[in-house]
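Predict the assembly for these two chains.
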Amino acid sequence: MAALSSLRVAVPQLDSRRTLPCSHFGGAGCEKAFFRCQSSKLLLGAGCVAGEKAPRVAGGGNVRAAVSASKAVTEKPNSGSKSDKADLLVTKDEGLELYEDMVLGRSFEDMCAQMYYRGKMFGFVHLYNGQEAVSTGFIKLLKQTDFVTSTYRDHVHALSKGVPARQVMAELFGKSTGCCRGQGGSMHMFSAEHGLLGGFAFIGEGIPVAVGAAFTSKYKREVLKEEGDMPVSIAFFGDGTANNGQFFECLNMAQLWKLPVIFVVENNLWAIGMSHYRSTSDPEIWKKGPAFGMASAHVDGMDVLKVREVAKEAVERARRGDGPTLIECETYRFRGHSLADPDELRAPAEKAHYAARDPIVALKKYLLDNEIATEAELKSIEKKIDEVVEDAVEFADASPLPGRSQLLENVFADPKGFGIGPDGRYRCEDPGFTAGTAQV
Amino acid sequence: MPRLLRHELLMFEALREGLGEEMERDPNVCVIGEDVGDYGGSYKVTKGFSEKFGSWRVLDTPIAENSFTGMAIGAAMTGLRPVVEGMNMGFLLLAYNQIANNCGMLHYTSGGQFTIPVVIRGPGGVGRQLGAEHSQRLESYFQSVPGLQMVACSTPYNAKGLMKAAIRCENPVILYEHVLLYNLKEKIPDEEYTCCLEEAEMVRPGTDITILTYSRMRYHVTQAAKTLVDRGYDPEIIDIRSLKPFDMYTIGESVKKTHRVLIVEECMRTGGIGASLRSAIMESFWDELDGPIGCLSSQDVPTPYSGPLEELTVVQPHQIVTAVENLCGKK
């Protein structure tokens, strides 16, 4: 198990001599550049030189011990070597499930790009290509009763959580059969059935919502004395969000009350055109957890099996009532920030580096090398997904646009909120009201 | 004949009674805010609740308005009914992101899948020399957010009734309390009751002019009314109570009777509740009006600390008397 797993877990002790192996351009195991600056002039402030280990002073002051800290294991490349059966990280069923979920995410997003350029969807569309290992690695461990919040880059989180591709595509096309009746759009995917609490356009604003769902879980235990597995919540967000106030406020509250929530940072190094290193005084986000007494980990987010292993520990910690975890996933988006982004700032070398670490290719290799699955089985999954995505497009195309009556229907859960009209009746009692013809 | 049993209390006690009754009735109702637990709330609305209901149901939060309001919203989406206390309503400016984007809009953007039955409440308005930042009127800032209901209480009776109704309502409701009204005393029914969130309250029927007001200004209006009555006027005073939506029936019936309107509010002039109300009345009852709608609002000034200056920023009874005389003509 240890051979292919890699966990760098924050043990919150002050260690001014600590260095960390670079997981970047030099490849895993390279100890050249702490701040990954060697190959790209765009990454500023690193001050590193090839071959030299950059010393790093961890934040000052005493830090209380994290709730649990796993052993830190030197990272080894997850490529090539065949393992013993006992060392395998997934069963066949699990492996195929993970593969299918990541392929679904990738194919769906690729189709979104096509549909956008064909004028079927509009506005701001943010694609997840390249980050599939994070969504699949975490969400496939969850139950339907667990909760997820995301950001505007939420299509794949929705799919992993079980929202049917048809409903997501129809939502993107603005059709009334979409998961939000066409009222949310790309950045606001919701599903009560699948525990998807959104889809948020402003970064940071979804994190408190996840904390709130975790609060409900704990409240139901403590106050309503409900039994059974405690539902956990996961908040997904990016590196840019980790500089936002709500992030820090929520780390504090979640740890203070030991809420069953997991904070997952999808660090893809860029917030639109702002490099993580240009905006962040201490770029190691995982180290911020221990400042709140929280267990934290850093993981290679391009490797779904590594992600899954770290995720398992975090989910278990949350479910047994031991509180939150902060996990920073090093990942990368293969496309621009959104379909409107010309993506001119990122260095070709950086893009090429991560393209070579495509999580789907990596999993495929692992499954084949370890004879967990055959080429034919994987191909048949790919074919199935192609059909699912095609079907989603056909469904969305054929679905109706919302009628006028839908405009006012969901402004209030109780439409009495529209008030009492001059005739003394509640406006919503007017038969013309939901057709949007009544006065408001 | 059975006598209606009543008991006397102060407005903050009425709020407490209403909140306590709802917490007993429904175990999903909880309170979230700064100093609501051990301290009993900034104006003692939750005094004794922590001992009675426990610290999960009366949650003392760190100072993080945006996040704990967002947390309340997430909790509401997943089955709880939180009552969020802003220690001073002004502090909820920190929570504007959550109140506008999630509280108001999330039911809609989710296509109706999630409800947000939160109540956001707390003391606001101009007090006694509390300084600009503690003297804010957030009703004008939040009124545009679609999906929110807003009510303002002004008596122990309607405070308890509105608190209960707001908690039972499936929509997010902002309940505006006023710092200077917490010690108002009144006898209220022993029997359980709620007030309608969308209705206005008739304070004094009359024939000459419709005076629309809410919260603390109700008392400046009633004080001015004494002088007006002495001078031969017969004002109809309505406490609109529901700041959003407006009760256009009660207001309309009054306008049809008196044909003159004066709005008296504590909001700033620009973009206040009065501005919206004026426009709504003109749109619906233009033909009923005999003259322009008057609107007395606070000055567009950060509330000064010094006493005389502070007095000048809010509407005083003598200004109300003058305005009525101008609108109705001298008697």
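The first strand of chain A starts at residue 8 and ends at 9. Chain A touches chain B through 64 residues (CB under 8 Å).
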